[in-house]
Amino acid sequence: EYAVNGDLLDLIIQVGGLPEDLARAIFHQVIDGVEACHASGIVHRDLKPENFLLADGFDVKICDFGFAALLPSAAAAATECRQRSNTRVSNTRIHPRMSPSCQSAAREDGEEGEPELGEDEEGENEAFWGMSDPSTMRTRVGTLGYMAPEVKRGEIKQDHRCDMWSLGVCLFIIITGFPPYLDMAPRRDFSLQCILTQQWRRFWMAKERHASFSDEFKEILPRLLEKDPSKRISFDALRKTKWMMGKMPSRDELAHKLQERLHQATTHQAAAS
Predict the structure, then answer these.
(1) Helix 251-272 crosses helix 8-15 at what angle (to 10 degrees)?
(2) Which positions fall inside the Protein kinase domain (predicted)?
C-alpha cells in the first residue's frame, strides 16, 4: 500500500507540532494499530513517528516490524509451528540467526559490561540496538530516544508495556514538534531526570517555555512515561482519560486541516526563499 502522505515525522517537520485535537485524532489511530498488534501477540519495540505512514486521508499505517517480538504465548505457538515444519523438512534444527548488520549492536541480557541506564556513550542516542531472535524479549532493540528504561537496561522481564513508553514519546513530539528529552543518560538530561524521578512540575515548567499543554494532556503523559512498567497505563485506561475522550475532527476534517497546514507551510517556505 502506497503511503501518499509520507510519514508522521515528515508531516511534523513540515508543519510543526499539532493542536491537541488534531494530535488526538492521529493518536487514536496509532493506539488502535498498536493495540491490534498486542492482541495478536506482537510487540513492535521501535515505535516512532517515522514508522507511522500516512496513507490517503491521512490514515495511519504502522510499518517497520524489523525489531518486533512475540509475547510469550505467541512465541510458544510460533516455536511449536516452526518445529513441526522443520521436522517435516529436515531432521536438522534451524536456529534463529542474527542479521549481520545488527551483530555489533545487539547485546543479550547477561552480557558482561552492559551499561545501566545513563551509562551510554556520547552520540549513542542516534544508534539502534539490534535483535537476535524475534521470539525473545530479552534483547535491547530499537531507537534509543524512544526506548523504555527497562529495555535500555536490558532487563529480562520485558513485555508489551515497553511500547506504551514509546507512544508517550511519540505523542509529545506530535504535539510539540520536539522530543521530551534529548539524551538517554539522566545525568546529562534535565528533562529525563525529571521524568524518571517524577518531578513533573519542574518538567512542565521547562517545556512550557516553548509550548502550551492542556491539563488533560499533563495528566496522561506521566502515565505513559512511567519508569515502572507495572504502573504504566493500559490501553483501556488510556481510552478512558479525559484527554483521549476530548473533541476531535472527523476523518475528512482531519485530512482537510492537515492539507491546509501543509499548504500554508509550503507557501511560507516559498515566500521565505
Answers:
(1) 50
(2) 1-244
Per the residue annotation, which of 46, 163, 183, 189 is the catalytic one? 46
* Model pLDDT for residues 9-43, shown as the tens digit of each residue: 999 999 999 999 999 999 999 999 999 999 999 99
159 belongs to the catalytic site:
no
**Residue that the C-alpha cell 489511530 belongs to:** 29
The domains located in the chain, with CATH, are 8-87+96-272 (1.10.510.10)
Collapsing DSSP states into helix, strand and coil, what is residue 209? coil
50 in a known ligand binding site: yes
CA-to-CA separations, 80 to 75, 83, 122, in angstroms, rounded:
9, 5, 42
Angle at 64 between CA 63 and CA 66, to 5 degrees: 150
51 a known binding residue? yes
Q: Which of 3, 10, 8, 1 is nearest to 57 (CA)?
A: 3
Judge whether 208 is annotated as a binding position: no
Strand 128-129 with 142-143, pairing: antiparallel
Say which residue, 101 or 45, is predicted with more confidence.
45
